[in-house]
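This week, look over our next protein:
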Amino acid sequence: MSSSGIETLQYEFPGHHAPPAFAPVLVGVVSSGNLEVLLEPAPGSGRCTFRIETSARGFGAIWEAVVRDFHTRHGFADAAVSIHDMGATPAVVSLRLDQAARGIPGVQP
């Protein structure tokens, strides 16, 4: 957590499969009640990492549940997700994560 009022959270899960080669995918906007998700390749890591910067402090357990659910559904390996949040609800976070995943060619929702 930083002194700026923004909380930084990081999660990492072992991947099950690497998605097809893809260019970074950016969805959403950083604004009140919304967030931006950047999904990038991370070749060779074998893992899916999440770095979250959020203005809504103290919700780490909820964040972990939402990103764990996403990872359970998609199982990406060799991928990195960066999130810049301004108080989005878990439903909006899940929607944006799925939008980012759909930006990868050949990935189904």
Notes: The two ends are 32 Å apart (CA to CA). The chain has a mean pLDDT of 93. Residues 7-103 form a domain with the Ribosomal Protein S5; domain 2 fold (CATH 3.30.230). The beta strands are 7-14, 25-28, 35-41, 47-54, 79-85.
